[in-house]
């Protein structure tokens, strides 16, 4: 266990091989992605869509809200439909109705079962036949299908325009009228929606009953059902996961690590004096709390739109804060405040670890703070104004809202954020360099912190990998590099190494043990995590190899979580190791909560979705939201709050510290999150999955189902949990405000203590 050189070699080998495989898969996606036609023509010579319209329509959809307004191929928000599934169903029904009138002179619903069966068989044959001609780059449709396409296209053009007859439907979708003011943009949009649905049903060249999206979405009308590979690889992944968990438990039980050291008699950090750059990080943590409050507020508004659409308890809030904006802020701020907490922690601990303060370090920390503040505020304001004013595709991509979930800020802001992250890595590196150059038991841990930080800064470059005309399948490929590998990968490695460093500085963990344990944990995590990224891409126009690789490696992602409970218990024991450790009770309890939510949110709810057969029916449903909330806040959010509290402990007047307020914060956040997930999101997800399995994705995402009495009841059941959770954020803000008041006026310690007593 202590031969770290071998572990470092294994880590390097796994990273090189895994990223090589991920790169190869990216090439395969690029080569075998659904072809984008130069034109779509009918058999009678009518041109339905011309060259460039699909790519331009993709931009039109993204500028109108994109993944914040429904989804395509299952990725996006859940209130409006999945447009690919919705188009496919509407086109199938329209074409069947045309044939029923042509052949039998009656509506389909009035035909005899034999006649209906005849049309059903003809429908599957017509829609699954691949008529793309690689030589000319055109897709040819029969005259009847062209007529059906025209009907559906008119519906969407009217919907994204201002047709009064569709006002009620727009209200259910939480979208304003004239969201695309230009008729050309609306026509281009229909080309993109048609192409996304065509890719979902048309058989791949040389294949039978296998579409470009591996038969997603589930649509019985056209024969879209799970492929054999979807079922086989799901079974194989479960078997692999169980075997790997058994191996992990066996390894853990046969490995004999040195026990924790005898803790010091007093807090080693009690008399530590923060350097000027460390003190400069205090404002970062207050911005983190402000972002948390804003994110929770936007979450409340966004959830309520699921009931009223464009109003908030009768107030027409949607006119100035539409659903697409509130949801963008809610998802974007979640990533930003968590990342800011972790970045600030790195800047805080670096001088403490090295024991030196580089020249101009404080200036760099301050410059970076205001640069990040400008990026957050600027991207939010320009995105909001761009959505309200419908300024256009180019503005949305470069300055406004790109319409991509978790990566929505305009390209200019992404470039600036990338530059900011590189500055952060530089500041962190120059502060850590003395410690990296000095041989010590902790040097491996410090190296892991710096390498993870280097990856955090460098891998944000993947947000610049796609352009306005990039194929949608490749946009999703690169987007998940950022969302999965950046947030769920290297940030987690960074935070885990930082926590280990903090425990070693407190004398609660042996440095040698922590060194090898962190490298081993990183090996296990990245071995499944890098290629496990592909489980997000099963049905996004990717080759079937993605299902096989993604299923097996995403199963391995669950394996290290099997031992998280053991680590959480050991952290709890460490919190009881000595009386002085109680000063760090709440940061440590946050780390313990991370273990709980890792098992429940990332493990239990995550693996509920990870197998291909499960995701086939539940992609784009509320079960995904349940996993997202439990994992994102429960794991990364609680980790961020724990780090925040640890740093504030060293930055604040100890007399102003209120364990009572932190107790209210901790339990309100965790209980509120559990109520939100298990009283609302999970029941809604199960109910919606039932509809998806029995009727199809289109029905599970239809307004008739989403606004049914049961689904709206589940929305209202979020309210108790939301209230408890929101109270937790308010207690955190009061706690932090109290620290700030006392910091500026030390004489206020007594009155602050009195206030804290009254709150109880």
TrEMBL record:
Nitric oxide reductase subunit B cytochrome c-like domain sequence ranges: 37-218
Bilayer-crossing regions: 231-251, 284-307, 334-355, 367-392, 412-433, 445-466, 478-504, 516-539, 545-566, 586-609, 629-649, 661-682, 723-741
Xref: Pfam families: COX1, NorB_cytochrome_c-like
Keywords: Membrane, Transmembrane, Transmembrane helix
Name used for this protein in its record: Nitric-oxide reductase large subunit
Source organism of this protein record: Candidatus Accumulibacter phosphatis
